[in-house]
Amino acid sequence: MGILDVKDVGKRFGGLQALSDVNLSVKENTCHAIIGPNGAGKSTLLNCLVGKLIPDTGSVMFDGNSVLGRSPHEINQMGISRVFQTPEIFADLTVMENMMIPLFAKRDGAYRLHGIESVSSERELVSMAEQMLEDVNMLDKRHMHSASMSRGDKRRLEMAMCLVQNPKLLLLDEPTAGMARADTNNTIDLLKEIKEKRDITIAIIEHDMHVVFSLADRITVLAQGTPLVEDAPENIKGHPKVQEAYLGEAH
Amino acid sequence: MFGLEKKDTTLLILVAILTMAAPFILNPFPEGSGLAQFNAGYPDLMQRFVIFGIFAIGFNILFGLTGYLSFGHAAFLGVGSYSAVWMFKLLSMNIIPAIILSVIISGLFALVIGYVSLRRTGIYFSILTLAFAQMSFALAYSVLTPITNGETGLQLTLDDPRILGASATADGSIPVTNLFGLEMRSAFDLAVGPWTFTFSAGYYVCAVIMLLAFYLSIRIFRSPFGLMLRAIKSNQTRMNYTGLNPKPYTLAAFVISGMYAGLAGGLMASMDPLAGAERMQWTASGEVVLMTILGGAGTLIGPVLGAGAIKYMENIFSKINDNVLHGWFSFMPDGIENFMVAIVHPFVGKGWHLTLGIIFMLVVTFLPGGLVEGGQRVGKALRRNKDEDSKNASTEPAE
Fold first, then answer.
1. How close B4 comes to chain A (CA, Å)?
2. Pair B309, B355: CB distance under 8 Å
3. Helix (H) / strand (E) containing A154
4. Which N-terminal stretch is annotated as signal sequence (chain A) (predicted)?
5. Cβ of B242 and A113 within 8 Å?
6. Rounded to whole angstroms, how far apart are CA atoms B136 and B132?
């Protein structure tokens, strides 16, 4: 039993069987990568975990509770944070305001009509936000309008917004997609540091094998909606089925 | 001060000074002079400035912060007015219970309409609110005649019960609205040379209530609740995946802005105790949208400026008729005079909407942030000039 258990999950869109018989168990405090060629169902699987999609069959258990039928905000409150393929941040707000929102969500739950004390008077939360920004080297940008930042910075901000909630499980959807090599390496370093410092489980969907092999403790290969193999990284590299799936699709 | 940051305190104090000194500021031209018709310092108009200011401040809490564009806010204004007048008919002529009831009833109305309308976003939300407002208008106009008195409008009569007051005064007329005895229409004139300044009790009551409403809106803007509302406008997906449910927040914003509208409606009835269905019509809902956008949606002071600008034009521009125009251009030769009058004529008097339309288009096109953005740009330009001056000044000695 892992912290996240996916059992016999299937999902059909019209005539397309996007997922079938997906079984997956993510162990606590590990980094589990899900890789696979385009159209393998990686994003569909992820969306089934966070409440955006409801699978037709099977079950998804997180920390002993089913997530099926719960809405995204409820699932976040259970301790799952998600980083998107294209950074989803509050672009109209400043970096600091972006950081305060997840902190309020964590402390006060899905909704609470606060009093009319000002945001800046929440000393404790402000210092937590500043600490987190310092950890991702963004403290100097805290008053910046987040829309005006580079894509790499937006990604780091989104990551910081997820981490500041201290989630049990962090879901990353291609966190380095479209990034320059230097930014990719920074992201890898950041994630490695997070893994070492915190008790956190990471599930990552990624195309970039460099990222996957630098981070993952365990890898699941998905092809045509079903898991092909699940093994440690060193065994995955030379696995004949994996090469077949990738090479067969790409060339 | 007052739990506000320095910048906000300055703004609040500035607004307080301006509203308190409005009878002077809005009356800059001596009586009898040619420009006296541009004076706006008479109680009726000043009351309208602040009452519509309250309406727009409340609307801005919904539209400016969450981005949900309601096209039916006049319904809450109308409900507030009807509630207040009923309070005058049944209880007493004191405005306090009337205003309290109008805020409560319009809040309940907003809760129902908001609960249904907020199931949709974007244009569908706007259309739902518009539909509700038009339904309320139609109901008030016809079906609910026993409550609203239909097209005549709800008025006070001599045989109203008024449990805590008198049905009629000693001399047999309808009593007037008051605040614990202070009559709303009482005023005091101050003549200074050719100027006459009128200080009306009604205006000052409205102004104080507007300042309280403005103060509350600043607190809401700066609070975690206000931050959540801005987050809703910015990115609802991220909001959901951050563990927040946007619905209760938007509904709360909708109800709060409905209560502001009800407060404005109640004040309107307190100044002039009658209520008609036309207050709920869609043009009235559209007007508050114009006010907010013209002033600057999502800014603190913008809606008040917008409300002032539109009400000023409505009351001042619309009074300029052909005779006045002939007076202005009389120094020109006859032919040119008539020509100028013919050109200006469509933009004033009954055509003031045309001027408003043009100004609105210009503002939206060139100043998307409204009058507030205009002010900020002017401020920035001035500061840059000053910086350059001081730079020049400091470099001079070196030369």
1. 8
2. no
3. helix A151-163
4. none
5. no
6. 6
Examine residue B149 and state whether it is found in any structural domain, yes or no: yes
pLDDT digits (tens, 9 = 90+) for B204-248: 999 999 999 999 999 999 999 999 999 999 999 999 999 999 999
B224 part of contact set with chain A, CB < 8 Å: yes
Which residues constitute the domain of residue B154?
Answer: 6-282
The CA-atom distances, in angstroms, between B119 and each of B113, B116, B246, B251 are 10, 6, 11, 10
Q: pLDDT digits over B338-351, tens only?
A: 888 888 888 888 88
pLDDT of residue B399: 37
Name the CATH code of domain A4-79+167-250 (choices 3.40.50.80, 3.40.50.300, 3.75.10.10, 3.20.20.150).
3.40.50.300
Do the domain assignments include residue B371? Answer: no
Instruction: Indicate which of A90, A99, A157, A164 best probes the interface with B, i.e. most B CBs within 10 Å of its own CB.
Output: A90
B263 Cα to chain A: minimum distance (Å)? 20
Min Cα–Cα distance to chain A from B266, Å: 25
* Contact state of A111 with B233 under an 8 Å Cβ cutoff: no
Contact list, B240 vs chain A (CB under 8 Å):
71-73, 76
Question: Are B239 and A110 a contacting pair at CB < 8 A?
Answer: no
- What is the number of structural domains in chain B? 1
- B111 in a structural domain: yes
Question: For the residues B15-39, what does the mean pLDDT come to?
Answer: 89
Instruction: For strands B274-275 and B154-155, give the pairing.
Output: antiparallel
Arithmetic mean of pLDDT over chain B: 91
- pLDDT at residue B398, as a whole number: 41
